[in-house]
Write a structure and sequence with these properties.
There is one protein chain. By secondary structure, the chain is α+β, with helices and mostly antiparallel strands. 52% of the residues lie in helices and 15% in strands. It is built from five helices and seven strands, in the order ααβββββββααα. It has a three-stranded antiparallel β-sheet, with helices on both faces. The protein has a two-stranded antiparallel ribbon with strand order 2-3. It has a two-stranded antiparallel ribbon with strand order 4-7. It binds zinc ion.
């Protein structure tokens, strides 16, 4: 721009130069910026993962993986799982000025989630699993109030919350016998819905 001005180019020609060179460059930069943002976001959440913000967003469309014959111990007798959801959260701790210290996004890995049965009660059960991941993702985002903490401490705390997420998912399946004890299933559904309110 400065070089162009120094050469004393007439106004009309200058405008022409701007349209011919600067605008395409600006447009291209914008495209690159957007593409790389999407690309980086994909890297962050995982190629086959889909972010979500509410349990109700989870549907059978998200269960695109092939069923795996997984043995379940249902109170002493062996059964096989009808579905499996792979939901978790992805988090990042930032050190950028004026930017959230911690960002966490709940995701469902659609290629690692599968079903062999399409019942409403089973979908409800899988949704509670997604709700548990969502709740712990919120807990990670709450770490923003400790913005003065060292990055290592924030990562450690988020990792601990991830461990708690796994423990809670297992407890939910254990206590409800994978959704087969209806009274317990209902209790969990209520509990998670309340926690997400
Ligand atoms: Zn389950």
């Amino acid at each position: 721009m400065i070089l162009l001005l120094n050469r004393n180019i007439p106004d009309s020609e200058l405008k022409d130069q701007i349209y011919k060179t600067l605008l395409p460059v600006a447009a291209l930069s914008l495209v690159i910026l957007c593409v790389s943002d999407t690309y980086l976001f994909k890297l962050f959440v995982g190629k086959t993962s889909k972010p979500y913000t509410d349990m109700s967003e989870i549907g059978w469309n998200d269960f695109q993986g092939s069923p795996i014959k997984e043995e379940l111990n249902l109170d002493g007798h062996i059964a096989y799982a009808d579905a499996q959801i792979n939901s978790t959260f992805r988090f990042k701790v930032n050190e950028v000025y004026n930017y959230p210290r911690v960002i966490s996004i709940p995701v469902i890995d659609t290629k690692k989630s599968w079903t062999s049965k399409y019942s409403e009660s089973l979908l409800k059960h899988e949704r509670v699993h997604s709700g548990i991941s969502l709740y712990f993702s919120h807990r990670v985002n709450e770490l923003n109030k400790y913005w003065t903490w060292q990055t290592e401490s924030l990562i450690e705390k988020a990792d601990q919350l991830h461990d708690s997420l796994i423990v809670t998912q297992k407890r939910f399946d254990r206590e409800t016998l994978h959704g087969t004890i209806k009274s317990k299933e209902y209790e969990w559904e209520e509990r998670i819905t309340k926690l997400l309110d």
